[in-house]
Amino acid sequence: MAMQGLTIGQAAQAAGITRKAVLVYEAKGLLPRAERSMSGYRLYIPDDVELLGFIRQARTLGLHLDDIREVLDIRRGGTPPCDAVRNLLDARITEVDTTVNDLLALRQTLVDTRRAAEDRPCGDVSTVCSIIEDA
Asked: What tens digit of pLDDT does each residue of 7-27 get?
């Protein structure tokens, strides 16, 4: 009897991700190894597509693959992963806050440098560009 299932392209499309992402998630152990058709093609079942959708959503929230693996391992162990997810989200919020603050500081540096460059003469042959060098 021939195995039935979705090809990697069909599974990826159904989950809203790329074929490459499916391969990465499988290689990283987030997704169980796919069964193979008699021709050697990977075949995915609806549970795999559901899991791929979960991984996509977790990535949308900014969770790292190791974080997602931790959540999946907790769930596979029979425990609800909600406490771990809360902690992971708190850590991600802190990361985002740090990035936002760094970007705001960079923006201010750019604004200040642009203002300082407004009336600066150009053409000093001793430098490449004094606007950048003096920033």
From this structure: 999 999 999 999 999 999 999
